[in-house]
Amino acid sequence: MSLLEVKNLGITFGGLHAVEDFNLTLEKGDLYGLIGPNGAGKTTVFNLLTGVYKPTSGTFYLDGKELKGKKPVDINKAGIARTFQNIRLFKKLSVLDNVKVGLHNSMKYSTLTGILRLPGYFKVERAMNEKARELLHVFELDGEADTLASNLPYGKQRKLEIARAIATNPKLLLLDEPAAGMNPNETNELMETIRLIRSRFDLTVLVIEHDMNLVSGLCEKITVLNFGTELAKGPTEEVLKNPEVIKAYLGE
Amino acid sequence: MSKNQPSPLSQKKQLRPVTKKNLVTYAIVIVFFALFQTLTVTGNLKFAYQSLLVPICTNVIMAVSLNLVVGVLGELSLGHAGFMCIGAYVGSFFSVVTEELIPVTWVRFTLAFALAAIAASIAGILIGIPVLRLKGDYLAIVTLAFGEIIKSLVNVLYIGKDSNGFHVSMSSSGLNLLEDGEVILKGPQGISNTPKDSTFLIGFILVMLSLFIVTNLMDSRTGRAIMSIRDNRIAAESVGINITKYKLLVFTISAAIAGCAGVLYSHNLSSLTANTNNFGYNMSIMVLVYVVLGGLGSIRGSVIAAAVLYALPELLRGLADYRMLIYSIILIVMMIVNNGAFFLKLRAKIAQSFRNSLQKKKNEKEAA
Ligand SMILES: Nc1ncnc2c1ncn2[C@@H]1O[C@H](COP(=O)(O)OP(=O)(O)OP(=O)(O)O)[C@@H](O)[C@H]1O
Ligand SMILES: [Mg+2]
Q1: How many domains does chain B contain in total?
Q2: Is CB count within 10 Å lower at the N or C end of chain A?
Q3: CA distance linking residue B29 with residue B204, whole number of Å
């Protein structure tokens, strides 16, 4: 069974078909790219897959379970986690606490245990700290564990978002322009990190990106969106040579 | 715990900054209490000032509990006095009815607190439900209305007791009490003869309890979830935080604590009535001022701002005409110092250099 099965997914805002007839099948372990010009509907696809928007047509399945119409919280619990194009960190929380919020549903103790400082509090908190630091280490953020998230430089904020998403223990990770604002060095490092986390955390990754180096270096297959519809789909090399795709990107 | 498994405290030799911060807050309250209790007992505090002590505790508790909603959850509430009102009336009613039945003061008073906390938290849940759908200005208006409705409601409510049990009505004649009956809640005249059980010691204990609950809550899994909702609702949902659950929880806990503040308030007076200044929007806004000036999300700030700003107008009474002028200036200065970017940086710098010098001394000592 495929990990993700998207069938004829679509949404209209007023009269605008932001996404129409979107189909996608991801196998476990895929590193898949979603590209297209500005306003093509890429972020909207992520918002549909994470329940931020309710689709006006079509449906999608994760591990055979239909998730259409489910709330963001339940979709995350089912195994989809994401990052945001316009970074959305918990700004007034420390870097460590941002990741610990991601661990909320996998490591638990009750509110009363927390207030009364019962043994469970210390035990679970210690385990959470360990796990969170381990994740920060993967992204080389362990030195900044106690920094406020808003005080991190831009590139590290993007990494922290990924760490927080992985903390929720997802099967499918959606990355919305993870390399935006990074220099070529940072981008190369990021590519390494994404490959690393895929194997280490058993992830399937769907990534939106404008940086063609990252796309061709990282993704085995891609889909190109244009005006909300699929323009091309297939192995990265082939698709990027497609004259239609070149035209859509470079204009007439 | 087995021997080779160190206890969580001994394993961490260094206290975490959060823990340290909370301990300092507790210490400030304890020192304040010890100082003024000593002054009172030794007869060195003017009676006029003694009478400020319990109300200061009431205001501190109100500010701490409102900070949980406004500073920690990030929702604006203008009806916090409504919860205090419910607590005050439920607590007083209970104490008046059971004064002869339960002669042991502390047992009766503890039960009054528990009952008031439950009643106020039920109101918290009721107001919390519409709040889940509202944001910003709309929420502010609804909570404001809630506070006013509670205040108006207790002003037209009559409850009496006779050998048949309790009678509730919207007018004094509607009670239809028997000969042996007695009206306990008399509409606009409120409840009289509440036992004066509140003391500075009990106020102090209650302040410490609310601090314990709120600071420990903030520094826990639940607290992080609440603050994540404040910082970014969409991101919080995306990592599986149940917004509804935590918003309701905050409103419930905050209301329960405010209800207890109401009991403390009403057992400090012999007759309880509800007006704009004690339970209306004036009070709600005053508490909001404490919270904002003390710093959103800063519990210690709320404690200090509430204590200072409540006591100040009384202490300035001697200055007659200049009183309100000085008060306003102090308000403005506090606002700038606590919320201005420049002063926040300055404060951080001072704190940092203080820490550095401490560290240096420590290092020197170790080297020696
Ligand atoms: N909530 C909304 N209401 C109305 N229109 C929307 C909404 N969200 C997205 N759109 C529209 O849908 C279209 C697709 O937007 P989307 O953000 O998905 O583009 P994108 O491919 O992510 O572009 P970019 O590369 O700039 O991030 C745009 O025309 C946008 O204005
Ligand atoms: Mg986008």
Answers
A1: 1
A2: C
A3: 8
A154 within ligand 1 shell (Cβ under 6 A): no
Q: Report the complex ipTM.
A: 0.94
Q: Is residue B170 part of a domain?
A: yes
Residue nearest to atom 6 of ligand 1 (CA): A13
A97 closest CB neighbour out of B8, B224, B297: B224
Is the minimum distance from the CB of A209 to ligand 1 under 6 angstroms?
no
Instruction: Kindly state whether B230 is in contact with chain A, defined as any CB-CB distance less than 8 angstroms.
Output: yes
Q: Examine residue B4 and state whether it is found in any structural domain, yes or no.
A: no
Instruction: Name the residue in chain B with its Cα closest to that of A117.
Output: B216
With a CB-CB cutoff of 8 Å, which residues 33-52 of chain A face chain B?
Answer: 50, 52
The residue among A85, A92, A124 with the most chain B CBs within 10 A of its CB, best to mutate, is: A92
User: Which tens digits make up the pLDDT trace of B65-112?
Assistant: 999 999 999 998 888 999 999 999 999 999 999 988 898 989 999 999
Q: Is B238 in Cβ contact with A81 (below 8 Å)?
A: yes
B90 belongs to a structural domain:
yes
Q: What is this structure's pTM?
A: 0.89
The answer, for B236 touching chain A at a CB cutoff of 8 Å, is yes
SS (H, E, C) chain B: CCCCCCCHHHHCCCCCHHHHHHHHHHHHHHHHHHHHHHHHHCCCCCHHHHCCHHHHHHHHHHHHHHHHHHHHHCCCCCCHHHHHHHHHHHHHHHHHHHCCCCCCHHHHHHHHHHHHHHHHHHHHHHHHHHHCCCCHHHHHHHHHHHHHHHHHHHHCCEEEEECCEEEEECCCHHHCCCCCCEEEEEHHHCEECCCCCCCHHHHHHHHHHHHHHHHHHHCCHHHHHHHHHHHCHHHHHHCCCCHHHHHHHHHHHHHHHHHHHHHHHHCCCCEECCCHHHHCHHHHHHHHHHHHHHCCCCHHHHHHHHHHHHHHHHHHHHHHHHHHHHHHHHHHHHHHHHHCHHHHHHHHHHHHHHHHHHHHHHHHHHHC
User: Looking at CA atoms only, how far is residue B84 from chain A in angstroms?
Assistant: 22
B241 touches chain A (CB under 8 A): yes
For position B22, which CATH number holds? 1.10.3470
Q: Is residue B323 in some structural domain?
A: no
pLDDT tens for chain A, residues 1 to 252: 899 999 999 999 988 999 999 999 999 999 999 999 999 999 999 999 999 999 999 999 999 999 999 999 999 999 999 999 999 999 999 999 999 999 999 999 999 999 999 999 999 999 999 999 999 999 999 999 999 999 999 999 999 999 999 999 999 999 999 999 889 999 999 999 999 999 999 999 999 999 888 999 999 999 999 999 999 999 999 998 888 888 887 664
Quote the domain boundaries for residue B137: 17-315
